[in-house]
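User: Hi! I'm working on a homework problem where we have to compare a predicted structure to a textbook description. Could you give me the structure for the chain below?
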Amino acid sequence: MAEAHQAVAFQFTVTPEGIDLRLSHEALKQVYLSGLRSWKKKLARLRNSFITGVYPASPSSWLFVVIAIMGTMYARVDPSMGMIGKIKEHLPVSGYLSHQGQSIVSALLFSTALWFALIMTMRYILKQLLSYHGWMYEQHGKMSATTKLWLTLVKIFSGRKPMLYSYQASLPRLPVPKIKDTMQRYLESVKPLMNDEEYKRMTGLAKDFEVKLAPKLQWYLKLKSWWASNYVSDWWEEYIYLRGRDPIMVNSNYYAMSRVPGSIIPLCSSQWERTFNTTRIPGEETDTIQHFSDSKHIVVYHKGRFYKVWVYHSGRLLNPKELEIQFQHILDDKSPPEPGEEKLAALTAGDRATWAKARKSYFRSGKNLQSLDLVERAAFFVTLDDCEQGLRTEDPVHSLDAYAKSLLHGKCYDRWFDKSFSLVVFENGKVGLNAEHSWADAPIIGHMWESMLATDCFQLGYNDEGHCKGQADATLPLPQRIQWEVSNELQEVIHSSLEVAQAIAEDVDFHTFPFKDFGKGLIKKCKTSPDAFIQIALQLAHYRDKGKFCLTYEASMTRLFREGRTETVRSCTVESSSFVKAMMDPSKTNEDRLKLFRAAAEKHQLLYRNAMTGAGIDRHLFCLYVVSKYLGVDSPFLKEVLSEPWRLSTSQTPIQQVELFDLVNHPEYVSCGGGFGPVADDGYGVSYIIVGENLINFHLSCKFSSHETDSHRFGKHIQQSLLDILSLFKLDKI
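Assistant: Happy to help. Predicted structure tokens:
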């Protein structure tokens, strides 16, 4: 086989004349190119680290400072006020340098120290500037003089060409809210969910906690906020994601679909680092995240078989035509899977402790250890699915629902759920991905997904026959079949994990639909936030669906702060519930309802801004609870708060790179969003994406096992609620 021959670096035979050593020039060439690429990447990382390390200054600014200092010295002016002379007196190499040489070295040292001092000053000023969030609370379309001045100063101190990680050291730390403020906001958030007696009891618990235990717990959080980069994120990653022992398929992982037929404010970029070459490692008590600095291959799954596919060759990435050849080779391979191989990945879909024990028992050595290492070190996982998915015009409802379910869980054994993401390519060319949640949040993978869709559509493209453009290198090594040794005992474990996963998958009731009656274009004419409009519509739809209000989770980001991840917006408010009750009360006029709607929308916007600026409720309460567990103290208040189920869990998928797409003329090239499983057994999961001016895509999930929920019924309520709210504004009369 050609690939086997190329894998041999040299050959030798024993002859009467001695050892005949025959070097393989192609193999040596590949060794050289591989090492060259590795060193180039190391130097590039070193260069980038230096550039981002001195930001907001630039390396060339050091030369400017040196020249300026030298120039003043030759003009017989001492800008250092004697510091250069002091440095000159204490130079350890003064005996080896001339008087002029000592002066130059001292000036260089002073210039460098001055340069670093200026960098730290600029960085401190920028950090203070970025701690100002007043701009978020201003009326849309209007900007105060304070914000205009702030914006000007941010531009001045932000440098000219920031890189991905340039702002990291300048981002402020996430502040710890005051206990009093969190208690007040929490009690306000649960008021529409409780009767008077329940609310009185909860108020008593909150006040008792605020006075007795909270100050002690808060002290530890303050200490952590001074010491750590972020007082929430590491605990959130560990206790919310990695310590969970339930299957991550459906319960944690989420999906993104393919397309349907710039601010200057810096955000934390720390999550980007783990997009590729990252996997979740199972443990019996807690999982860990393993990130590798580099990877040159991907792992592809097709019809029960695993393949290693090189994506680098001769020091470069393979072009699309070359990748097409690699995948075609896999598709043409008719060899059957080895016994137990086909459903091996079900281990990643079942209980985490079961997978951890199996990994320790059956993947410690030999082929299994090597093969598992190939999967976990891969840049990402690819599934060439053997079924067709996507929108079918003859059956749009069921086809989109099946598309979503396939991306969320597939067959429960044809995605590697531990990888940072698994790219899924269906037989008819539709694509999507399944992403593991612990390493990053959805906007990170969404940003990458947008870039992929735009690049595929507008830059790479295909020829008239549907093949990738370009030429292929005939010397490329072909994909290598990954070998496993699956014993009968291991097959039993795989079967057990598969049964657990299939029970979860079969219980998922999913409904995906496009709402085409209107989009943000008409919503903006209502002079309200599109997100607030949709969230209030969800409250109305849920009340119509279940006849009651529930604790509602809307995800927002805290990436305005260093290492920030998410915060919760509690969308069920006193104001939104008052509006919903008015919509259900035939005695109320539309004028009354419209007034209540505006109050609810303003409150939602306030809560969203508070969450983004570090004044949320739930992450603070979560961290207080973690501290209480470390101290071994019980809090009836925190225990009750942290056990409250989120029966309506929602998230908006933002379109982050609008410059990549022509949303007016070609909205079909934008992703139709993604979704996730329900958080509560008797609740709903709702994801939505606002596409252009006239389209909103919804992804709804719940469980068949709950008699209270029905995704299609809820979808109809959402559509009707959106229309009913819009009718209040009488836009046809404007």
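For your comparison, note the following. The mean pLDDT is 89. The chain is about 45% helix and 15% strand. Good luck with the assignment!
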